[in-house]
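Exercise 7b. Backbone tokens:
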């Protein structure tokens, strides 16, 4: 076989190989659409009492995930139900550690009762954003997980403080967002800003496809920035989450992609 023909066949084979992607969603948050989102994702992050949720919602969501062959993860937060965990919170190191311990212990107990293994842990909201850039809080977060003997994967932002601190001791999966706009520093555009959310299925799909195939994202100011991700998130309380996910599924096979189930 000549070299040109060999290269041509290799290109064809590479194009035939499907890319399998993990799509996760924050669920168990009372948004009322978990039942329609769960069949369309491959992993979920379940609120465990910090920003919302409790024994009943954790149990129900874990059962729903099991029925749909979806991996389960804990979604701990600052203990701030009033603000849904989306506002920076003044809290002592001891109180934060105690809250995280209580949330994760509860989640693991209910997962065990349902004979389900915990795949991953992903911080929620303001806590997620804080540990991405604040070393002190990130160390408290990781120290708490270590004390609990957690061996689940950690979902963390690209090129973040938490990733740099955790990668030597934890299995980290880098996360990017399907439904949120990015700033130039790869932080998420604040929810109080216009166009912080991608509301149309077309725009959300375009961002996902670009991140998967080009390893870059177009920022709010239309700059293309390099980004890498192992898992891609859509928020379970996004008003158009079902429509976005259905549109994504319609386009996956067309572009040689598949959902990692």
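Sequence design result:
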């Amino acid at each position: 076989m000549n070299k040109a023909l060999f290269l041509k066949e290799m290109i064809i084979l590479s194009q035939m190989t499907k890319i399998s992607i993990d799509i996760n969603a924050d669920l168990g948050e009372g948004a009322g659409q978990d039942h329609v989102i769960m069949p369309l994702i491959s992993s979920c992050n379940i609120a465990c009492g910090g920003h919302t949720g409790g024994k009943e919602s954790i149990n129900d969501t874990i059962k729903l995930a099991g029925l749909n062959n979806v991996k389960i993860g804990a979604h701990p937060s600052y203990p701030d139900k009033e603000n849904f965990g989306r506002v920076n919170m003044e809290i002592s190191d001891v109180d934060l550690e105690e809250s995280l311990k209580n949330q994760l212990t509860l989640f693991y107990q209910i997962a065990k009762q349902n004979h389900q293994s915990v795949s991953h842990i992903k911080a929620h909201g303001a806590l997620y954003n804080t540990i991405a850039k604040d070393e002190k809080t990130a160390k408290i977060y990781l120290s708490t997980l270590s004390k609990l003997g957690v061996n689940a994967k950690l979902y963390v932002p690209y090129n973040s403080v938490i990733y740099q601190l955790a990668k030597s001791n934890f299995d980290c999966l880098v996360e990017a967002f399907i439904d949120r706009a990015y700033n130039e520093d790869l932080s998420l555009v604040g929810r109080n800003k216009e166009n912080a959310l991608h509301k149309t299925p077309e725009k959300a799909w375009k961002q996902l496809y670009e991140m998967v195939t080009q390893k870059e994202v177009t920022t709010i100011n239309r700059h293309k920035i390099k980004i890498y991700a192992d898992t891609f998130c859509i928020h379970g309380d996004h008003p158009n989450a079902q429509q976005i996910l259905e549109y994504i599924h319609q386009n996956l096979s067309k572009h040689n992609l598949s959902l990692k189930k």
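Instructor comment: The beta strands are 19-27, 43-47, 71-75, 118-121, 153-157, 172-177, 216-218, 224-226, 231-235, 257-259. The CA atoms of residues 97 and 144 lie 6 Å apart.
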